[in-house]
Specification:
Layout: E1 3-5, E2 12-14, H1 27-39, H2 50-71, H3 77-109, H4 111-119, H5 121-130, H6 132-153
Antiparallel strand pairs: 1-2
Helix pairs in contact: 2-6, 3-4, 3-6, 4-5, 5-6
């Protein structure tokens, strides 16, 4: 015979029991609540997941480098150029990866939208809007990566 665990006190009761032996709680209501809880879809990841937080940290570090280079002039010459090149190429490479991630997310939703996004650039924006719940993190990651490349470009002051 099957058993059911009381959600209130934790004691295991027979499945035919209506009330818990220990606390008297109604087991049928608990069983229905457990079924509803089990059938709810798993909550999606937070918007600012770990990967995007790392990218935002890199963007903040690049912005701090711009401030140290332009405002306080602590980073100058060849060192500033090395920082600039590093941030620009890292930002561009990560932008390409984030764009591929975005295309994969669009293809997961619809092959037609994916092909259209691949060959017609403006359609990608419509696909992002249409499948926002699935594409938002990859789209924001792409924007942050583009920001890293742009901020890297700003490190070396114009001559």
């Amino acid at each position: 015979m099957n058993s059911i665990k009381c959600l209130q006190c934790g004691i295991v009761n027979w499945s035919a029991d209506v009330e818990c032996k220990r606390c008297g709680s109604l087991l049928t209501v608990q069983a229905k609540a457990a079924q509803v809880y089990a059938s709810d879809p798993v909550e999606s990841k937070g918007f600012f997941s770990g990967g995007i937080m790392v990218l935002i940290g890199v963007l903040a570090f690049a912005a701090l480098t711009v401030v140290l280079s332009r405002v306080f002039q602590l980073i100058q010459g060849e060192t500033a150029q090395i920082f600039a090149i590093t941030f620009m190429f890292t930002g561009m490479a990560l932008t390409v990866l984030a764009h591929l991630w975005l295309l994969v997310r669009i293809f997961e939703q619809s092959t037609g939208w994916g092909l259209a996004s691949l060959f017609i650039p403006w359609v990608g924006l419509f696909a992002i809007a249409k499948f926002w719940e699935k594409t938002r993190r990859s789209f924001v990651a792409q924007l942050v990566c583009m920001g890293i490349a742009f901020v890297g470009y700003q490190i070396v002051p114009p001559s």
